[in-house]
Design brief:
The complex is a heterodimer of chains A (116) and B (108). With 116 residues, chain A is mainly beta. Chain A has no helices and 11 strands. The relative contact order of chain B is 0.34. Classes of the chains: A mainly beta (116), B mainly beta (108).
């Protein structure tokens, strides 16, 4: 089955760190750009970052540069998002998506809650 | 960054009716690099349209996209019960990728 499954979300204190993972199956993961998109509770969608097929190019929304790092392991068919110095406003469901610009396959998301 | 403004915020229609959703960009969206997504409660978004007018795989032909420059439209020709959801437009003409705030399509 073609799917993406995120994991690694949870409750973290302000200033803490979290690493999200996205496991891909059913398609040639190494042939696709991959992205992270987040959605705060009750709010709209916000693109976070994307990464080239071999990991050589990475792009971020300006507001998150320096705190978040996207990476991938094609041998493990996995995408990652390392999140540091987390703030309350980072609370959201984080989705991984297949694609560089538009996203034709999404995971179900993982909830990150930043709160003391 | 390109700001996308969707209208109306909420659209109340009945099954069988035609829905017209608008997305206006603050700057020209080059080459029609605009997509539309549908999101139902508790679910991930689903890609409906890319390149302003191209239906994604498996999307029924009652969904159509049009427009260019700064004005884009998603049309649902005859609403089915499963079409009531939130719809987002998204531009990928320039970085950063941005989304509109969404239009809620509700049953009248």
């Amino acid at each position: 089955e073609v799917q993406l499954v995120e994991s690694g979300g949870g409750l973290v204190q302000p200033g803490g760190s979290l690493r999200l993972s996205c496991a891909a199956s059913g398609f040639a993961f190494s042939s696709f750009w991959m992205s992270w998109v987040r959605q705060a509770p009750g709010k709209g969608l916000e693109w976070v970052a994307n990464i080239e097929k071999d990991g050589s190019e990475k792009y971020y929304v300006d507001s998150l540069k320096g705190r978040f790092t996207i990476s991938r392991d094609n041998a493990k068919k996995s995408l990652y998002l390392q999140m540091n110095s987390l703030r309350a406003e980072d609370t959201a469901v984080y989705y991984c998506g297949r694609g560089k610009w538009n996203f034709d396959l999404w995971g179900r998301g993982t909830l990150v809650t930043v709160s003391s | 960054e390109i700001v996308l403004t969707q209208s109306p915020g909420t659209l109340s229609l009945s099954p069988g009716e035609r829905a017209t959703l608008s997305c206006r960009a603050s700057q020209t969206v080059s080459a029609g690099y605009l997509a539309w997504y549908q999101q139902k409660p508790g679910q991930a978004p689903r890609l409906l349209i890319y390149g302003a007018s191209n239906r994604a795989t498996g999307i029924p032909d009652r969904f159509s996209g049009s427009g260019s420059g700064t004005d884009f439209t998603l049309t649902i020709s005859r609403l089915e019960p499963e079409d009531f959801a939130v719809y987002y437009c998204q531009q990928y003409s320039s970085s950063p990728i941005t989304f509109g705030q969404g239009t809620r399509l509700e049953i009248k």
